[in-house]
Amino acid sequence: MTATEHLDTAARPQPVKLWFCPNDELDPGLAATLAEHWLDEPERETAERFLFERDRRQYLVAHVLVRRVLALATGVPEADAVIRRSPRGRPFLLAPAEGVPRGGRELDFSLSHTQGHNLVGVVRRHRIGVDVERLDRENRGFDAIVETFAPPEREWVAQAVPGRARTRRVLRLWTLKEAYAKARGLGLELPFDSFSFQLAQDTGVLGFRAPEDDAGAGRRWRFVELEPAPGVLAAVAVLVDPGEPTLFEVHHGFPWGNRTPQLLALPEPAPARV
Ligand SMILES: CC(C)(COP(=O)(O)OP(=O)(O)OC[C@H]1O[C@@H](n2cnc3c(N)ncnc32)[C@H](O)[C@@H]1OP(=O)(O)O)[C@@H](O)C(=O)NCCC(=O)NCCS
What is the pLDDT of residues 50-109, one digit of tens each? Predict the structure, then answer.
């Protein structure tokens, strides 16, 4: 790649990229081999600490996936990517001062993994947060989760028939809130009743009230709701400027070859009307 091409790639708005990969897409033996070659020392130590093989497998697939996705996005080989964490636990790629072979210096990513499913989101500029949950997750603790929501959200949840319909509402709100909190790098430190969503009946965000400390950016957030596999809900929060990417790609499976992604339009920013 020439220096001009390098600059062009870095400057051109790139679509937001999402990679959805169930654990089953990667044979356990292969996941372990890739992990041996690609993961760094702290990641390998973390993997060793899991008591249950199921949890270790989940961790290995998720982290091998992150490194593969970052390698595709940056041109830095999987084992060479330096991944660090913020004091609050948010992982980030430590880019060399001269930038990475593909895409300049600015790149953000977010990872979510749950009971056999993994989602990684990558964006060139600004911030991204993703969250994935299974609809059939045990609903112990749901009442406590709903308690953390803002009053209009609690009301909306209560209006649904108990059972599947209510679970769906809870998890739609939860994944969106987690995605936003992860994009901000705050995780659960952000009070979940300090911001709120108004959701469409089936899918889509109709309104978003940002927390006070982010009120200025409220209209720059774009939210995507997805059901990447039956019974799996995912949400994405991405902060973009006007004129920045209006498309997002959804890739399914482990990123080996050139499977064509789904190309979708990023929803318009949601008005602050909650
Ligand atoms: C850690 C947290 C950011 C997300 O946790 P989670 O929803 O359980 O798990 P996810 O798989 O979606 O996300 C975990 C990943 O988020 C990333 N992460 C951790 N801290 C983060 C932060 N402050 N900001 C952004 N991302 C963060 C990490 O990559 C982590 O995976 P890793 O440790 O294997 O690298 C935080 O919000 C949390 O602890 N949530 C509690 C979850 C809970 O109570 N769930 C029940 C709801 S139904």
Answer: 999 999 999 999 999 999 999 999 999 999 999 999 999 999 999 877 778 887 778 999
Query: Which residue of 64, 85, 112 sits with most ligand 1 atoms within 8 Å of its CB, as the best mutation to test the pocket?
Result: 112
157 burial type by CB count under 10 A (0-12 exposed, 13-18 middle, 19+ buried): buried
Q: Helix, strand, coil shares of the chain as percentages rounded to 5?
A: 40, 25, 35
Q: Domain segments of the chain: what residues?
A: 15-265
Domain 15-265: CATH superfamily is 4'-phosphopantetheinyl transferase domain (3.90.470.20)
Give the DSSP letter string of 231-245.
TEEEEEEEE--TTS-
Cα separation, 126 vs 141, in Å, equals 33
Report how far ligand 1's centroid is from the alpha carbon of 112 (Å). 7
223 lines ligand 1 (CB under 6 A): no
Give the integer Cα–Cα distance in Å for 79 and 6: 22
232 alpha carbon – ligand 1 mean position (Å):
17
Residue with CA closest to ligand 1 atom 1: 187
